[in-house]
Amino acid sequence: MKLNLKPEAILLLEDGTVFKGRAIGKIGTTGGEICFNTGMTGYQEIYTDPSYYGQIVVNTNSHIGNYGVHKNESESGQPAIFGLIINSFSDIQSRHDAYENLQNYLLEYDLVGIEGVDTRMVVKHIRSKGAMNCIISSETTDIDKLKAKMKEVPSMKGLELSSKVCVKEPKFVGDENAPIKVAVLDLGIKASILKNLTDRGVYCKVFPAKTPFSELEAWNPDGYFISNGPGDPGVMDYAVDTVKSILDSGKPMFGICLGHQILSRATGLSTYKMHSGHRGLNHPVKNLVTGLSEITSQNHGFAVKVEDVESSDAIELTHVNLNDDTVEGIRVKGKPAFSVQHHPEASPGPNDAKYLFDNFIDLIKNKN
Ligand SMILES: NC(=O)CC[C@H](N)C(=O)O
Fold it and tell me: In the UniProt entry, which residues are flagged as the active site (predicted)?
């Protein structure tokens, strides 16, 4: 019989609930907002999605690690998550082209995690109590010490994080001879979004989150893209101002997730922190323009207030979530600008919503 010799680890929730398990990754202590992703696959893409910066992910799929880590499946240069909570962790991978096992990958990036946790119980708990912070530790089981550490973990509400994960200097992506030029406001962009743009004949210039509109405009792009990203859209006035100027310019604009929240704010709508976020690969969304439904990939903990949408003259509601009627997409009346809360690039997830990238390209072509 193989003995499980991994050190003991503790998961402490903000409300004082304790779960015990075994250490994975680095031996240490970490804190962040706990959130769960219900995807059955795609853990590497999830961990490397910059929108998870500051968060500790619970994978509800109970087997994690069994297909290792692949060179081409990262959404950014390194994992963005602050920690990991797993039911059954495998440090043996069964895939011929995996370059590494997940345990070594976590060690490479100093990530602290816990396995052997009843993740169904954790998820039921945080679903009923709502979003909260947590601490994972594999270096101490002293709960009082960990409670003291919990006080140092900031609340996600009110946190600006895009400037921590975006490019530091403008960067070009794609073929410079491509027919369309899009200025990308990087609030924490996923690599697969850029790939969806470049695959459609777009040459991108990716700008840091806090770049003023004048600099974006100076490149003379055919359109603008506002990316996904971590943190609270409610405190990102700098990005809202940029997006307002883009709207004034009259050029086509597309926003995804955080980009959708920022475009919404720029049109006078407000955002709020959800009781429980949407994170998974099977969220049903109805396109109100076509009447068709799509299964979508999602990852957000904030949303646009539906009452604001109902009373707005500035926008039209284009997409709605069929699980809970939350706002999934808008377009701005009289302007070539639209956005969605879900992730058409998927990665991981279904491809039903990819047509939105085509819609953006069509908008640019018709405009120019
Ligand atoms: N994926 C994203 O862009 C997330 C947006 C925002 N940080 C939220 O949690 O709602």
Answer: 257, 343, 345
